[in-house]
Structure formats: structure tokens, C-alpha cells
Amino acid sequence: MSVPRALTRTILALPVLAAAAGLGAVLAQQTPATKVTELMKQVLTDIPGREVVMLTLDIPPGAVSPAHRHPGHHVFGYLVEGSYRIKVDNGAERVVNKGETFYEAPGQLHAISGNASTSAPAKVLAVMVVQSGKPLTVPEH
């Protein structure tokens, strides 16, 4: 019995199509990285060992960051655009929307951090009072 040529091509193409679909699913899960722009850095001469860092986070749709901490730093956040999912330490997960603010105390676990939308970007203005010489962010292991 002979198998029609079109059916043979379809059967031979199935593994390639399946692999491509799998790759597509992996690529769909990857999102562009958050763009961090430092706007200002100012030493606080009247508070030894402290400085202020002001930056923006441009967060693509669906992007998230791994759990992390800001060692010795106070973080004040303001949502310039979009919506932002956040969970700090044992607090409740919440969504911060445009015009709203959030705060992270030094060393708290930023367990959830990401754009709450899969279709619209988010922009956060962060003002951090930092201990000079310490990294701004340390990943949680």
C-alpha cells in the first residue's frame, strides 16, 4: 500500500512543527528586561554614609523580577504609568496603580515584583535612601 506524498510530508513535518511550537512557548514566556535609568545620585553630606539614588524602572508587559532585597536601603516607589504587582516580606500581594505609592524598609524581602499587565508597560519612579557602597539590589537565594 502506498502512502500519498502529501500525507508523508505532513507526517515527516510533525516533529519539526512540535519542536517549533515548544520553542514558541519558551520564547513567549521570556519577556524583555526591565530598563533601569538612573536619574540622580546625591551624597547626603549631613547624614554620613548615606546618599539618595533616584531612578526609573520601565517594565515591559508581563515582566517580573526575581525575589530580592535592598540591603540597608529605604525604597519609595511611585507608579508613573501602568500597574505593578508587589509583595514585601509577609505583607499581602497587591497591585499598585498609576498615581499610587509603595515603600520598602531596609532589608525586606521583595518577594513579588512585576508588571501586573501582560499588554501594557509600567513605569516606576524609585527614590532610594541608600547606604554608600552597598549594592542597590541583592538577589534572594
Q: Could you explain how this protein is built, in words?
A:
The strands form 2 sheets. A 5-stranded antiparallel β-sheet has the order 1-2-9-4-7, with no helix packed on it. A 5-stranded antiparallel β-sheet has the order 6-5-8-3-10, with no helix packed on it. It has 2 domains: 1-30; 35-139, Jelly Rolls. 18% of the residues lie in helices and 44% in strands. The protein is α+β, with helices and mostly antiparallel strands and 141 residues long. The chain contains 1 helix and 10 strands; from the N terminus they run H-E-E-E-E-E-E-E-E-E-E. Mean pLDDT is 84; it is low at 7-28.
Structural class: alpha+beta
Residues in helices, as a percent range: 10-25%
| CATH class value of the largest domain | Mainly Beta
Order of helices and strands: HEEEEEEEEEE
Principal-axis shape equals globular
Gyration radius, rounded: 22 Å
CATH architecture of the largest domain: Sandwich
Number of domains: 2
The CATH topology of the largest domain is what? Answer: Jelly Rolls
CATH homologous superfamily of the largest domain?
Answer: Jelly Rolls
Given the structure, what is the number of helices? 1
Give the low-pLDDT segments: 7-28
Summarize the structure.
The protein has 141 residues and is of the alpha+beta class.
Task: Give the tags.
141 residues, alpha+beta, Jelly Rolls, 2 domains, five-stranded antiparallel β-sheet, 1 helix, 10 strands, globular
Question: How does the SSE layout of this entry go?
Answer:
Blueprint: H1 5-29, E1 35-43, E2 50-59, E3 68-69, E4 74-81, E5 83-88, E6 94-97, E7 101-104, E8 109-115, E9 122-131, E10 138-139
